[in-house]
Amino acid sequence: MFRFWPRRGPTAPTVAADGSVLPGSLPSDALTRGQRVMERCNLLARHSEEADRLTRPYGTPSLRAAQNDVAAWMRSAGMETRQDAIGNLIGSYPGRHSGPPLLLGSHLDTVRDAGRFDGMLGVLVAIAVVEHLHQRNERLPFPVEVVAFADEEGLRFHTAYLGSRFLIGALDSTVLALRDEAGVTLQEAVEVFGGNASALLFPDSVSYSFAGYVECHLEQGPVLEHLQLPVGVVSAIAGQSRIAVAFSGQAGHAGTVPMDLRRDPLGAAAEFVLAVEEAARECEGAVATVGQIAAEPGASNVIPGRVPLTLDVRHQDDVQRHELCRHLETEARAIAGRRAIDLGWRIVEDQPAVACDPALTALLADAVAATGCPVHQLPSGAGHDAVTLSAIAPVAMLFVRCVRGISHHPDESVSLEDTAVAIDALDRFMAGLAQKQMAGPDLQAGGCAEDARAGPE
Ligand code: HGY
Ligand code: MN
Ligand code: MN
Q1: Which among 95, 213, 285, 346 would be 20 to 30 A from 313, CA to CA?
Q2: Cα separation of 397 and 361, whole Å?
Q3: Ligand 1, pocket-test mutation among 152, 348, 406, most atoms within 8 A of CB
């Protein structure tokens, strides 16, 4: 039984019984371009700091190698490329008129043991859209830039969005002093990576203005697959807290210290991890994760002396997220108190929940509808650079169905056909935006932040 979606134009994406889109019902060029995006995601997956899995942190040789590939693809798509002071890679495609560009893109860094589409899909779909303009020698009324952020995940320095935070001039000296597991500061890492650390703190000299930001990203969850939809439009992005927690007790000999004389921090940490799970389950709409934990010094015959762990708390409502974080800190202190253990609690990051821009999102929804697919709006539980950029410009996001909702995992996957639908939708979005610019108030007046920053560096 096939379901046909009403579509303005010759055909509509046809959905098979399992929800997949039939290739024959898509614009052939979108399929070809989608195929190239998939191939390029596979090529980029070779660039990793680890031989047997994909791990590409900020400032590493593997990120440099991935940037070199992407820069070449940007140039073959008719863009000029540059890197900014923190190492974000930016491709520029001039418009018929000058002015703040529309920014497309995503990130090239990954988590540990990552999937090959988180970030890379958005960068490569953006390049495919510009390449299509270039091949038709088409110029839009506004410049377009594609950004490949150098650090969104925060794997190396445990604080997300370094690339986009730099772009909006939101880095401060405490961030530059952050150290990775080898003790290297972000400032040092920027210099080693060929950036310009001295330029990072002076927004006026590094500032950059753009008219809006639109990011294509795999959903990283199961909703679109459940609804049998190839793409979805993001309504809002959850706020997130990243907290460094450490339980400290007394290390000792595993064989000689009686149980009642121990101050074992691992027991406290274990109790706390269960408390995190219980509290998040009881808070509607919240998710909380202990993603990293270590028993130091880390030997089977040594009672741990210190147990550092990371806590990631998210919610679409910032008030509830902060309330949950306060509750978890109280819990941690109570557990540590009962066990005569010391507690370290440091908020490393607090990113607010943001709503996507209504005007830009409406245009994106129209573009999805024009592909013939139903429009479904959904919130993002994952964080994205759009959170940061929303501080100075309107943002919108297009989600692509994620196979079995798996992400931050090597099994992460999207289909060629869904990627083709996303490319078709983004093509239509750009055409719609160009028409809006020519017909009515331009993007600047249509809800975009004033030019808060000088032009690109
Ligand atoms: O953690 C996140 O939500 C994103 O993948 N950086
Ligand atoms: Mn991610
Ligand atoms: Mn991502």
Answers
A1: 213
A2: 8
A3: 152
